[in-house]
Amino acid sequence: MKVGPKGQVVIPSAMRKALKIGPGSRVIVKLLRGRVVVEKPIISAVSVFEKIAKAGPSVSFVEPHLYEEELEQRTRA
Fold first, then answer.
1. In the predicted structure, residue 67 carries a pLDDT above the cut 80
2. Most exposed: 38, 42, 52, 71, by fewest CB within 10 Å?
3. Average pLDDT in the 50-69 region?
4. H or E stretch at 32
């Protein structure tokens, strides 16, 4: 591979297919022990929040005593 004038490299087609990435896909680039590692993110925080937002209305009010009871139960376990 050659590095282009803008510092770009092309990920070979077989590797893109294996990672299921294409134009516009997000990747993580890391430097580990003198090597460049390109990874596909395991999860996209943005997509998780989009799914939550599309799922329906959020909780706007929680009864204080219910919240306290939940905390109490969790600390007992």
1. no
2. 42
3. 76
4. strand 28-32
DSSP 65-76: HHHHHHHHHHHH
pLDDT in tens, 12-59: 999 999 988 999 998 999 999 999 999 988 877 777 788 877 887 776
What is d(CA 14, CA 1) in angstroms, rounded to the nearest whole number?
A: 14
Alpha helices in the chain (DSSP H): 13-19, 45-55, 64-76
CA distance 8 to 2: 9
Q: From the DSSP assignment, how many helices (H) and strands (E) are in the chain?
A: 3, 2
* Long-range pairs for 28-35: beta carbons < 8 A, 24 or more residues apart: none
Alpha-carbon span 56 to 54, nearest angstrom: 6
Residues with Cβ within 8 Å of residue 19, at least 6 apart in sequence: 11, 27, 40
